[in-house]
Amino acid sequence: MEWRSAIFPKSVTTQPTKWLIKSVPHLELIAALFSGFIILVTWLLESHLSSTWFVLFHLLAFSIGGYAKAKEGITETIQNKELNVELLMIFAAIGSAIIGYWTEGAILIFIFALSGALETYTMNKSKEEISALLELQPEEATRITNGQEEIVPIKQLKIGDTIFVRAGERIPADGIIRTGSTSIDESAITGESIPVTRTRKQEVLAGTVSLDGAITISITKSADETMFQKIINLVQSAQEEKSPSQLFIEQFEGTYVKVVLVAFSIMLFLPYLLLNWSLEESVYRAIILLVVASPCALVASIMPAMLSAISASASKGVLFKGGVHLENLSHIKAIAFDKTGTLTKGDLMVTDAFYAQGTDTDAVLAIAGAIESQSTHPLANAITSYSKEQIGQTKTVIDVVDLRNISGKGIEALVEGQLWQIGKPEYVGKELAEAFHDGVLNQLASEGKTVVFVKTEDRIIAAFGLKDTIRRDTKMAIQSLQQSGIKTIMLTGDNERTAKAISEEVGMDAYIANCLPEEKVNHVKELQQNYLHVAMVGDGINDAPSLATANVGIAMGEGTDVALETADVILMKNDLSKIINAITLSKRMNRIIKQNVFFSIGVIVILILSNYFQAIDLPFGVIGHEGSTILVILNGLRLLK
Known about the structure:
Membrane topology: Multi-pass membrane protein
Organism: Ornithinibacillus massiliensis
Protein name: Cadmium-translocating P-type ATPase
Family: Belongs to the cation transport ATPase (P-type) (TC 3.A.3) family. Type IB subfamily.
Oligomer: single chain
Subcellular location: Cell membrane; Membrane
Low-confidence stretches: 1-23, 122-129, 242-246
Shape: elongated
């Protein structure tokens, strides 16, 4: 999967820093690694360097490795008026340098900078989903004023204006059809792959496509109130909300820094005043306290484990955009699934064919395939493919003339002077359709299938049942999730009958039909109230708000760009069974992270107490502190297996 590269801002010359970051997306990681290289070289050449060069090399490592974190710490402190861990690390490193332990301070900076750089690299989500949505919104519309057509920006459209939309064009605004009729591809809004017929006085939505008819529309909503704009707003608002875990971490960080700085201040003078320590000893022990209390091990407790789990997951076809989403996945109690393109393949197929008695089935299939091959309608494509599968490529040339698309109803043409009609029951005659083959229409419809009839010489001679088929791995995936105690719910824009049929076939715990994007979001929020932690699986533009609202959004790898960019997790191979594997990995990762956190906190406590009782010196403090960091990293790397 190729992700979109960052777009350079127009104001490059006025914003050189931002331009540099976008031009070199891994600059922070490169700086951290380079500072580590300088530290290594300085350590190897220490015996050959003068004290001046020794200090200069370490200052260079401090500056290169610590710049990003120092800037981040200072900026966030000013903005939030709250001290943070970044500043604590800088203080610890500077304190080490002040008392002559340059290498120890530089190593602290390097490890913290490297962790931060890796976190930035792995958790940097794409911010282009809104741009991808806007690409589907036409920028201009054909407005009709006093009988004259004029091209205007959609922002100039007002309620009551009349616009003209040609066949094949995307509708630019919500409104009511005044003249004409057409089949509308509403997949961008509802996710339903089968086009729907819209005629006079019926509503159409911005972002949908008029497939085969020209229509005029009276606008009913301004550009900023359309259903399409609501999708954009929902994605934005959902992404801006902070998770409870994130808020807790931010609060913990501020408290942690304050406690350490207070302890540092006390250590500077209290032992000197009350315990008969020398002032030099008190300052020395206070600096050691800053070093051993620095959060390198705590940071390393999480990121290496997450990176390892993300790498292992990616090798199995599941891509996480950040470790936090992998962490959250283990808490999921319910998963909502879109239907079309998620539980199903998203491609219509002929599943049933019925013929009138005495009919030459091959001849009917050949003619129906020849007629439908001249249409781009999804139903026509399915029948054309079915014809080729059943009888192969016919050698006889079928001369199709006077072909006409009957908008929203079907298609008709002359073959050897005989009129052939292919379409909906209403088009070929509802009574004839309902009576054909002992009422097969009702049977197929109850199974959630779309029925297309073939009529000639005033009688129906064939009927085809079409359906969006279930993915091969869907049933197994749903069963595995249910066995793990996770509730499964289908959210679909389909009608009640189709939704019920698919839900029963797949084995879902529940389903909700006739869902527009805004309604899907509301249903996801209701599920969150009932189950607390909810995931959403989808593939279409219409799923983007729900994917952003859910605690974890999961997109199919073959989904739209918007779904891929909005989701937190991507199933690269479109295999739903991989979800249960990812959940298992998430639980294992969380166990390892808890082990690391308790261990690292325990080491910090032991080192702090040892320092207070004057049992360790600074080199041993650094060894204990960095040793615990290495151990938790190695423990996290076990997830690579």
